[in-house]
Amino acid sequence: MRFVAKTLFGLEKVLSEELISLGADNVQIVNRAVLFEGEREFLYTANYCLRTALSILVPIADFRIRSKEDLYKSGLKIEWDRFMDPDDTFSIVPVINSPLFGHTGYAGLILKDAIADYFRNKTGRRPSVDTTNPGILINLHISNDKAIVSLDSSVIPLFKRGYRQEQSIAPLNEVLAAGIILMSGWKSSATLTDPMCGSGTIPVEAGLIACNIPPGRFRQFFGFQRWKDFDEEIFEKIKLKCNNQICASPVKIFGSDISEQTLQFAKANVARAGLNDVISLDVSDFKNLKSNNDPSYLFLNPPYGQRIQPEEIDLLYSMIGTTLKHNFSGSVAWLITSNRESLKYVGLKPKEKHVLFNGALECILLKYELYQGSKKHD
Ligand SMILES: C[S@@+](CC[C@H](N)C(=O)[O-])C[C@H]1O[C@@H](n2cnc3c(N)ncnc32)[C@H](O)[C@@H]1O
Q: Which residue's alpha carbon is at the smallest distance from atom 13 of ligand 1?
């Protein structure tokens, strides 16, 4: 079977590496997605284990269209009763980039009519649309004249792990947090610190990686569980096999934040993820932190500045640079922000730069290798 794992811009490579190490075949990177092949059971494993996928689609039909009518006719030819019954509910997510459709929703309506007519012609009844809790979620992708119809096997996006119920004002997407950690090359052998941890997303994702905990472990539901061909026994076996590989963390992970209230959120999330023994959390201003001279990895996701005066945010970024240079010599720091202006005030020369997206927000991820004298202007 051919599958499409969707991801955030910039994470395609780490996702492809995850897929290869899970055993996927014919892995191929495309824009914001990775194509791969595997057995049906592999779809369950991928949903349960992938840290950097947003959702996994299963293409069921692809065809060319020259008009709106073509979409209806080709939609009517799909054997919908292989996937659902007239009593089921469904919803369609249209992703349209075609001059044939001025209005994205219209393409979805045409496919909906085709599905309804397919069942009405066959059974006299039709499945109804439920956009909030659909039994089957259908993805309709049209690029110019090329249409692909897929089933969404995740339904609830995979970044919704289930452990994060409390969050700070600007939390990182869990998929992005896991992606940054995997991109950094951190191999659970060096101490990891997030000194501006907010609701604790980076420490928790690092803890899950260190303990080999599948990110799907906390979820109650995946879309494929409502499919006609869902095999619960196989899914239970897969979960058991993956959960049996959970281990103790070889390293300690630290999170701190200047805000007492935010740290309470982080504590609740760490506890929900079962990582109390792995992650230590403290209230602290970053400027007062110092490394204990072990080589360590720092991950910083400072405020972007939307709710702070410009002078204050520049001072904050300057303090980050000074603290990294003086207190964390010998460490590697990864910093992600959308505020390119204030970044100048960090005053350190980055070794690597990557463009990533936190939801719709364009961010930059920088790697700093810290040593005495690494700050350009003191
Ligand atoms: C963008 S948020 C981090 C969000 C976090 N990555 C998450 O997923 O929830 C930035 C955090 O930096 C913290 N912060 C701001 N100034 C700080 C400082 N001087 N020292 C430590 N933390 C600070 C804020 O309280 C806020 O929680």
A: 196
